[in-house]
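Inverse folding, one chain.
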């Protein structure tokens, strides 16, 4: 078995001190045989096994995934969860899922819209008096990232030293909001798509103001408990992930892989705090897309997708906490998320019958054309579209990238 990598190749590692993208992992990880769960003939199991192993063969330390097609389920894991001990990854691990939190927040807020307690096109200031300077930003603009408000993480994590410094820092929602509102506007409200984590901290405060309960408790009450998502929770200021999980690695100055699995996630809150599993994510998105969580009117608003890039109207589109990504077999709905050491993608057919959730234990390694991202897309393509045919390679750029100069969602074709 190959030795797990402890560093990136020096020729590929970027200079984090200047806050640039780092290169891909050079040495391949030790790849454990993919572990499969219950399957039937409808799933391309050999192709899924091969696609999962390719992710670690091209350099990822560890990866696990769940694929569903109706009642057929495949689960797999490859690589290691700890580069020191060589402990293998398991497909049932808990994982920090980052900005996938936003779909849970948006769904909760849309339930309140359906109950007549919130209006999507009302100014945010109606619900949060004293925070907003004017009435220009609406609730809808928070959820579809068209508010123009700056993303606080670009200030909080402007340097790599701050990423290390804030391991134990507790941030309040109002501190994060003040930071975001103090930044220059990215665009006039409503004029363009500009991804901002500040939007969802504000959305969480609206949920709290309207319900009188913490946003995390309201999401537990409305989503986690009814769907029996027993491995999904908000850690708050507790820095350690409870239950079985992988360590989470970030490439550092000389290419060393540094463990960031112990981290106070109060900096993420309703923008990216959630811990979950691939199975729980698939269950959540299945319920959401088949209409179990929202009334038809609010479901239509959730899926009111607009191009993130006006120059490419058929590429990536974003609704209210939900993205639409074009694949060769049609659009896939879902979200992706990245926090320090953890990267997650959860994508689904529009009816929620075909699903894939993928979790990786190294973050912020992406660069143009990197083989890990290409291999990850191959797994997603195989899961949702069947055995692959020749088509152009795709790469993923995560949307929560505090160490990079330009965080953005999955790029369009």
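Residues assigned per position:
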């Amino acid at each position: 078995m190959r030795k797990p990598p402890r560093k990136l190749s020096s020729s590929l590692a970027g200079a984090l001190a200047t806050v640039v993208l780092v290169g891909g992992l050079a040495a391949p990880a030790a790849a454990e045989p993919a572990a499969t769960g219950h399957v039937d003939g409808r799933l391309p199991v050999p192709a899924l096994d091969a696609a999962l192993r390719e992710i670690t063969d091209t350099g990822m330390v560890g990866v696990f995934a769940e694929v569903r097609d109706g009642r057929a389920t495949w689960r797999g894991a490859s690589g290691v969860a700890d580069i020191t001990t060589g402990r293998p990854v398991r497909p049932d691990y808990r994982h920090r899922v980052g900005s996938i939190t936003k779909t849970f927040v948006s769904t909760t807020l849309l339930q309140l819209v359906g109950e007549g307690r919130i209006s999507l096109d009302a100014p945010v200031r109606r619900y949060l008096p004293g925070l907003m300077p004017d009435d220009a930003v609406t609730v809808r603009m928070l959820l579809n990232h068209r508010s123009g408000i700056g993303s606080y993480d670009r200030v909080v994590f402007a340097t790599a030293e701050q990423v290390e410094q804030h391991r134990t820092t507790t941030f309040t929602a109002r501190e994060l909001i003040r930071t975001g509102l103090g930044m220059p506007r990215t665009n006039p409200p409503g004029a363009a798509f500009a991804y901002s984590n500040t939007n969802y901290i504000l959305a969480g405060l609206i949920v709290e103001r309207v319900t009188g309960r913490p946003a995390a408790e309201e999401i537990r009450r409305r989503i986690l408990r009814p769907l029996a998502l027993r491995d999904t929770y908000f850690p708050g200021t507790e820095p350690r992930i409870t239950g079985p999980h992988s360590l989470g690695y970030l490439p550092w100055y000389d290419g060393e892989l540094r463990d960031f699995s112990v981290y106070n996630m109060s900096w993420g809150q309703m923008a990216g705090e959630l811990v979950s599993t691939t199975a729980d994510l698939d269950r959540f998105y299945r319920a959401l897309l088949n209409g179990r969580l929202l009334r038809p009117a609010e479901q239509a608003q959730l899926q009111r997708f607009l191009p993130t890039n006006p120059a490419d109207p058929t590429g990536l589109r974003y609704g209210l906490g939900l993205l639409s990504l074009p694949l060769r077999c049609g659009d896939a709905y879902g979200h992706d998320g990245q926090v320090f050491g953890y990267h997650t993608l959860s994508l689904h057919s529009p009816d929620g019958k075909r699903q894939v959730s993928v979790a990786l234990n190294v973050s912020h390694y992406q660069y143009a054309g990197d083989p890990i991202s290409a291999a990850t897309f191959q797994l997603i393509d195989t899961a949702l579209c069947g055995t692959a045919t020749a088509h152009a390679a795709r790469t993923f750029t995560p949307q929560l990238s505090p160490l990079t100069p330009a965080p953005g969602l999955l790029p369009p074709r």
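Confidence is low (pLDDT under 50) at residues 8-40, 395-413. The chain has 13 helices and twelve strands.
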